[in-house]
Design brief:
By secondary structure, the protein is an all-alpha fold. Helices cover about 70% and strands about 0% of the residues.
């Protein structure tokens, strides 16, 4: 069973992406929005290797993001896992070699990730665990929509690399 180099490099790449996303990615902001490097890697890994491994990688990447961001521990993991469940539809049901599948998986994954993260923060604020409340409308307009465009554009740029990764067997 040929798993490919990406399979073995995924956890170190996610750890590195989490570190970069928390530190250096702020230097490549566009309109105040930085790329979600961990989300992009997790969606790519899910499209190639399936949702089972995608959930594991989402958990690891989310914990990494939460450790470096200072946000509520577990919120990023849960939001990334929700995005994996959406992106996992493109693993076997649809062919990832179809141009629209990776683009749609990234767009939907970003939307689900952002919405789930906002919902978790709202629940924590409701129970007075978080100190700040986020205005949903402005947050979606100023952060979620530009992040969706940014991540989807990065996925378009990654498509040639994604299509070179061999199809995997169910692990």
């Amino acid at each position: 069973m040929n798993r490919g180099a990406l399979y073995y490099l995924m956890i170190p790449l996610i750890l590195l992406a989490g570190l970069l996303q928390s530190t250096a990615a702020t230097r490549i902001k566009i309109n105040g929005v930085k790329p979600d490097l961990v989300l992009i890697l997790v969606v790519v890994g899910t499209l190639v290797y399936g949702p089972r491994l995608g959930l594991l990688w989402a958990f690891i990447g989310g914990v990494m993001l939460d450790i470096f961001s200072g946000g509520p521990l577990g919120a990023s993991s849960l939001a990334l896992m929700a995005a994996v469940l959406v992106a996992g539809i493109g693993h076997r049901t649809l062919s990832r070699f179809n141009l629209l599948v990776p683009i749609g998986a990234m767009a939907l994954g970003t939307a689900v990730y952002g919405t789930a993260y906002l919902a978790l923060l709202s629940v924590l604020q409701y129970f007075r665990v978080a100190q700040h409340s986020l205005p949903w409308g402005l947050t979606v307009q100023n952060i979620l929509v530009p992040a969706l465009v940014y991540n989807t554009t990065l996925m378009i740029l990654l498509l040639p690399l994604l299509n070179r990764v061999p199809e995997s067997q169910e692990l």
